[in-house]
Amino acid sequence: MNGTVEPILTVEHLTMRFGGLVAVDDLSFSARPGDITALIGPNGAGKTTVFNCITGFYKPTVGMIRLAHPDGKTFLLERLLDFRISQRARGSRTFQNIRLFQGMTVLENLMVARHNPLMLASGFTLFGMLGLRTFTNAERAAIDMAKYWLDKIGITSRADDPAGDLPYGAQRRLEVARAMCTEPVLLCLDEPAAGLNARESAELNELLLFIRAEHATSILLIEHDMSVVMEISDHIVVLDYGVKIADGAPAAIRDDPRVIAAYLGVDDEEIADVEAEVGT
Amino acid sequence: MSRAAHPGKRPLDILAALKSAVLAALVAFGLFSLLIGLRTDQGPTGALVLTERFGELGAFVAVAFVGVFLRELLLRDKRIDIVRFVPPVVTAAARRIIPFVGPALLVFALVVPVMFFHNRYLLDLSIQILTYVMLGWGLNIVVGLAGLLDLGYVAFYAVGAYSYALLAQNFGLGFWICLPLAGILAAFWGVLLGFPVLRLRGDYLAIVTLAFGEIIRLVLTNWQSFTGGPNGISGIARPSFFGLPFTDGEGGFAATFGLEFTPTHRVVFLYYLILALALVTNIVTVRLRRLPIGRAWEALREDEIACRTLGINTTNTKLTAFAIGAMFGGFAGSFFATRQGFISPESFVFGESALVLAIVVLGGMGSQIGVAVAAAVMLGGFEFFREFQQYRMLVFGFAMVGIMIWRPRGLVATRMPSVFLKERKIVAAEFVAEGRG
After folding, report:
1. Mean pLDDT on B327-338
2. N or C: which end of chain B has fewer CB atoms below 10 A?
3. In terms of pLDDT, which residue wins out, B43 or B377?
4. Mind listing the pLDDT tens digit for each residue in B334-359?
C-alpha cells in the first residue's frame, strides 16, 4: 500500500438519513487513482445510497466527498448538482437497471454523451445552425470517439440499430461505453454484471480491465458477483447495514470473518465467538 | 364458414354471447337511461316539463345488445384488426412511395394558389390548415421531441397575436418588424412558463400548462385598458407586399405590377407567407434535431436521469424546448392577427390547444410529415363532415377513434435517427419513448 499517492476519491464521515432510517452511517473510505475499487455488501447495506451521494442524486446528511483530478483540481461533490458532477468534476455513472435511450440508435446514445463538448463547439447551437466548420469537425471527432468505443465493446456492426434492440449484455457494455464517452476521471458502475451470463460477465471484466489499463479513469463499482469483484478489483470496501465492516485488498477481504458473517450469517450462539475473534 | 371445421376453435357459444350481450345492454341502460330516456323541455307556462323518450332509450339498448351479441358470436376474442383488411400489395406499394410523399406534398402546397385561384373557400381553408401545420410543428418540438406534455400551447399563439396587434396599433410597426418581436415575446413567455414546471412530470405538467393557457386567456379578457377585453382588437394592419398594399388604385400591388385588381392577391400572398413560415419552422426543427440540443431533447424524452449523469443541464434543455416551441407559436399568432384583422380572447380557448395537441398525437409524436398530414386530415375533416350538421363532431370523433385503433401511436410512429454510421435505419415505434413529461 503506497500511502503517498493522493486518493482520487475521498469519502469522509458520509451519513445519509431518510427520516429515522440511517442508510449510511459515518462511512469513510478512499479510492486511489487508477484502481478498481469495489463496494460490496449484502442487500440493503447502503451501497447504492453511497453511489447516489457520490453522483449527486442525494445530498448527504453529513459528510464530505472529495474528487481530486490528476492535475490537482479538487471538487467537493456533495456541493455540486448531479449534472455538474459529470460536466465539471467528470464523475460518470451507470445504473443497476440499465438506463439507455432505448429509442435512439447505439451511435446516438454515445453522441448524447458528447453533449457538452459538442454544445460548446456548436456555439450553443448558433454555429451549428450556420453549419460552421468548428461544429462539423467537433461532430466528426465525436463520431470517431463513438466508433472507438463501439469497437472496444464489439458492437460496431449494430451502431445504427436502436439501443433497446441490443441483447442484454451488449446493453450493459454500451452503458459503460456511453459513460466513458464523457471522458470521466471516476467511473461509478452500479452492479454492471447483474443479470449477465458467465461469458458476458467475462467480456465485461475484460472491458473494465482495458479501461483501467488504457485510460486515466479510476473505477468504483458495486457488485454482487464475487467472481467479478475478486478477479478485477484492487481494493474492496465492505458495507453492512450502512456501516463499513472491512476495507482492504481482495485477499484480505476474502478471509475476513466479519465479511463472511455478514454474507453468510451466523447463528446466535456464534455471534459471541465471531465478535471475540474480530475484536468488537 | 363453419368454425367447427377448424380444430382448436371453440364451437359457437350462444349462451356466453348472450351473457355478454345482456351485460352490455344493462350497462347501456344504466348509461343512457337519464341521458336519453328523459329530457327536460320548456312547457307552455315556461316551466320545465319532463319528456319521456323510452323508445329511443330502447333503441340504444337494443343496438348495444345486438352489437355485442354479434361481436361475441362472430369475432370472439379476436381484436378488431384493421391492418388485416389492407392487402399486402397496398402496404408494399405504400412503403415504396413513402420517401416521395414529403416532396410531393411540398410541390402540391406550392401550386395550390395557382390551381385554385378562383376558389376562395379552398384558399382560406388551405391557409387555415397551414397555420395549424405550423402550430403542430411548433408544439412537436415540446411534445414530440422533448416529451413535455403541453396543454396550454395556445397561450403562445395568443401572445404572438396580441404582440403583433398591440405593437402595430400603438407604435405603427410593420408586420416584418413585429414578426420577430412577437416570436421573442412568445419565447420569453415560454421560458416564464418553463420555470415553474421544470420539476413537474406527466399529468402534473399537463395540468399546470393547461392552467397557464387559461391564465393568459383570462388576463386578455379582463385587462380592458390594455387588450380591449372581450371586445378584442380590431382594425389590425393588413399585410402589404413588402410595402405595397393590396388595394385598388394607384400605388397598390395590382397597379404596380400591371395586374387587374382582385382581393385574391392578398389571400394568395397570405398563403405563401404562412407556407414560408411553416417551412422555416420545419427546416429549423429538422436542423435542430441534428444538433446536440435536439439530441438532448430526444434523450430527455427517453430518460431524464440518464441525461443528468451525462452532464446535460436538463433545466436549460427543457427551457430551450419551451422557448423555441413558443417562438413558433408566436410567429403563427402574429400571422393569425394580420390575416384576420381582428382578434379577441375567443380565438384562444382551450379547444385550440387540444386541437393542436390532437394534430401532434395523431400525426405521430416527433414526425414532421405525420403532423402535416394530420393537420390536413383534422381541419379538412371538420369541413368535409360539415354536411352531417349536428352529427359532425360525432362522425369526426368516430373517425378519430378508428384512426387511433389502426395506428395507436399516430400516422408516422417511427423515428428517423439524427446521425448514422453506415445506413440510416428507421427506429421502430415500440422502442421510442413517449415521454413522461
Report:
1. 94
2. N
3. B377
4. 999 999 989 999 999 998 999 999 89
- Average pLDDT rounded to a whole number, residues A22-29: 90
CB atoms A125 and B305 under 8 Å: no
Give the CA diameter of chain A: 75
Backbone angles phi, psi at A99, to 5 degrees: -120, 70
Q: B-contacting residues of A 137-156, CB under 8 Å?
A: 139, 143, 147, 156
H or E stretch covering A11: strand A9-18
Report the CATH number that the domain containing residue A41 is assigned in CATH. Answer: 3.40.50.300
- Residue A111 near residue A100 (C-beta atoms within 8 A): no
Among A182, A207, A238, the domain boundary falls at A182
pLDDT tens column, A45-85? 888 899 899 988 899 999 999 988 888 888 888 888 888 88
pLDDT of residue B423: 79
The three cell numbers of residue A51 are 453511489
Pairwise pLDDT comparison (B356 vs B45), residue with the higher score: B356
Residue B2 binned pLDDT confidence (cut-offs 50, 70, 90)? very low
**Contact, B323 vs B117, CB < 8 A?**
no
> Which contiguous run of DSSP H or E holds residue B107?
helix B88-115
Q: Which of A166, A182, A198 is the last residue of a domain?
A: A182
Residues A130 and A257 placed together within one structural domain of the fold: no
For residue A28, which of A2, A65, A54, A60 has the smallest C-alpha distance?
A65
**Which domain covers residue A275, as residue numbers?**
1-90+184-280
Domain residue extents for chain B:
3-78, 102-239+276-431
What cell numbers appear for A33 in the block?
487513482
pLDDT of residue B4: 43
Same domain, A192 and A274: yes
Q: Do A105 and B302 touch (CB under 8 A)?
A: no
Q: If you write DSSP's letter for every residue of B12-80 in order, what string do you get? A: P-HHHHHHHHHHHHHHHHHHHHHHTSEEEEE-TTSSEEEEE-HHHHHHHHHHHHHHHHHHHHHTTT---
- A24 Cβ contact list (under 8 Å, min separation 6): A14, A15, A16, A46, A49, A50, A53, A60, A239, A242
Nearest to B421 among A57, A114, A159 (CB): A159
Q: Which residues pair with A91 in a beta bridge?
A: A186
Q: How far apart are CA B132 and CA B359, in angstroms?
A: 8
CATH code linked to domain B102-239+276-431: 1.10.3470
Residue type at position B10 = R
| Reported ipTM | 0.87
Q: Which amino acid is at B207?
A: I
Whether residue A121 is found in the same domain as residue A141: yes
Q: Which three cell numbers stand for residue B194?
A: 418553463
pLDDT of residue A279: 57
Contacting A residues, span 91-130, partner chain B, CB-CB under 8 Å: 92-93, 95, 99-105, 107-108, 111-116, 118-119, 122, 124-125, 128-129
Return the pLDDT at B273: 93
Same domain, A26 and A140: no
Tell which phi-psi region holds residue A210, choosing left (phi > 0), alpha (psi between -120 and 50) or beta.
alpha
Pick from A105, A137, A178, A188 the residue to mutate for testing the B interface (most B CBs within 10 Å): A105
* CA–CA gap between residue A234 and residue A219 (Å, rounded): 10
